[in-house]
Amino acid sequence: MDRAALFDVDGTLVDSNHLHVLAWWEALRQGGHEVPSHAVHRAIGLPGDRLLEHLLGDDRDRSQDDRLSTGHDTLYATFFERLRAFDQASELLRTLASDGWKVVLVTSATDRELEALRRAVDADDVIAETATADDVEAGKPAPDPIEHALALVDVAPDRAVFVGDTVWDMKAARRADVTGVGLLCGGIPRTDLTEAGAVAVYDDPAGLLAHLDTSPFRSRPAT
Fold first, then answer.
1. pLDDT value at position 41?
2. Which CATH class is domain 3-15+83-219?
3. How far apart are CA 181 and CA 204, in angstroms?
4. pTM, rounded to two decimals
5. Which of these CATH numbers, 1.25.40, 1.10.150, 3.30.230, 2.60.40, describes 17-78?
């Protein structure tokens, strides 16, 4: 039976979360919104519309949303050539693929951002599919992106593991009945990740790779 290794990208495979924080903080500032950077950090991982709702509330002037998102996208794009994958991120994906796992990226990134992120990871040859927030009606923390990813590779939830770095990732995994594994490299505390549903937490991709034999990936046998 097939197994799926599902991965968030920003903050999980690529060291990009703080660049997103800077881009959103500046876009919000230019839009007249003084939002503390730590609050922006906690919202990273949500799709753009959900992020703005989380930070500014339901009663915000929604006519600004497109301008704020464009401001973020424009500034973040200036970092594309400087994006770097975390140590051993590509090795982790390749190891899982060679062990029979179908590797799927599950991300809230736009198509343009995803192209830059995939260049940074440099493991396209082992990535089976990609599921983005644009593919579904509701992004993380709703289970829709993970459920869509599983449908793309025809794998049942109990045959999958999802790796992410935010509480939104872990909540989405739990709601999709998929085992969630958290990484600390995105900057979210261990306690927050476990409370959101992570069954195991590692420092970064290299840490997960080093402990792969005792990780939740080994509790999903090949047959």
1. 97
2. alpha beta
3. 11
4. 0.94
5. 1.10.150
